[in-house]
Specification:
Blueprint (H helix, E strand, L loop, with lengths): L1 H18 L4 E7 L5 E5 L2 E2 L7 E7 L3 E8 L6 E6 L5 E10 L2 E11 L12 E5 L6 E13 L1 E8 L4 E8 L5 E13 L23 H12 L4 H13 L5 H8 L5 H11 L19 H12 L4
Parallel strand pairs: 1-7, 4-9
Antiparallel strand pairs: 1-4, 2-3, 2-5, 5-6, 7-8, 10-13, 11-12
Helix pairs in contact: 1-3, 2-3, 3-5, 4-5, 5-6
Length: 300
């Protein structure tokens, strides 16, 4: 019996370990829209807009994507869920009747010698966890004619020769001045929830469609510890409503796992003033009391 238990624990450990070890190379391309700039989890990934961008070394299970466009058309926001194995994934950005959409295009297992697209305007960058530096240089050239004067004094004050040169090639000058501006760019838009005026813990919650997909992904896991680990990673990479947190807590099978997740999710919740909803997931009053005490003593 002990041997079986050890095997189960080892299997859970291996599953949990595998979740955090995956790596993804992501390519985004368009043939229909203006050049775009990619933000992942609010961080700008490359300096200049392009129509084909490859981002290498992304290692999280969930990706909060935002695209802005060079022609100032509406930005696109989407949550992408990574597969359970390290992969090369390609997404296409398309114009549709419902606006610009990001669509899955293809995926293969990650290979060290995977051929990068030969498209001439592709930008290849490592995944950035801090804003890229956007640098622009302005060069100003000034041209004109100098006015020159030359004076010779001959002898002991006997004669004075004065020559003045105004204009002409000998007086031409050219001066170039370069000014470099460096900025870090992030996304700062914040969601506004109708009827809610309380404190917020994060700026932009998951849409219902993205949440339902995340919920199904967690629910499909066989072990409670695996569900907990995946739920934490999804929550940490996103922002949740209080009732979404409650629904994820309800997916946990054991009271201690539920309580651990409820405590973890608190700072990643948009409407933290509604966090009392999370207590609806508990069967035991003691868990509700412990969660309330945790929130009362939490320091932002």
């Amino acid at each position: 019996m002990k041997t079986i238990n050890y095997f189960v624990l080892f299997s859970v450990f291996m599953l949990n370990s595998a979740i955090g070890q995956n790596s993804y190379n992501l390519e985004f391309f368009t043939q229909e829209t203006a050049p775009f700039t990619i933000f992942i989890n609010g961080i700008q990934q490359h300096a200049a807009p392009a129509k084909n961008v490859r981002i290498e070394g992304f290692e999280q299970p969930v990706l909060k994507l935002q695209l802005t466009f060079e022609d100032n058309s509406d930005a696109v926001t989407k949550t992408l869920y990574m597969p359970e194995e390290s992969s090369e994934i390609v997404y296409q950005i398309k114009n549709t009747n419902k606006g610009v959409k990001v669509r899955f295009f293809s995926s293969v297992a990650l290979q060290e010698d995977f051929p990068v697209s030969a498209h001439p305007d592709i930008i290849v960058v490592p995944y950035a966890t801090v804003p890229v530096v956007v640098q622009s240089t302005t060069t100003t050239t000034t041209r004109g004619n100098n006015t020159g004067m030359h004076m010779d004094v001959n002898g002991d004050g006997v004669g004075v020769n004065v020559s003045v040169n105004v204009g002409g090639n000998d007086g031409y000058y050219e001066q170039t001045t370069s000014t470099t501006t460096i900025t870090n760019t992030t996304v700062t838009d914040v969601y506004v929830m109708d009827g809610y005026n309380g404190k917020i813990g994060c700026p932009w919650p998951l849409t219902d469609a993205d949440f339902q997909e995340a919920k199904k992904t967690i629910k499909d896991k066989a072990f409670d510890d695996t569900r907990l680990g995946l739920a934490k990673q999804i929550i940490q990479s996103n922002c949740m409503f209080a009732d979404q947190v409650r629904d994820l807590v309800e997916l946990m099978s054991f009271d201690d796992t539920q309580l651990e997740l409820a405590k973890f999710a608190y700072p990643y919740t948009y409407d933290i003033g509604n966090y009392f909803k999370v207590s609806q997931a508990f069967d035991f009053e003691s868990s509700v009391e412990e969660l309330n005490e945790y929130i009362a003593n939490y320091r932002w």
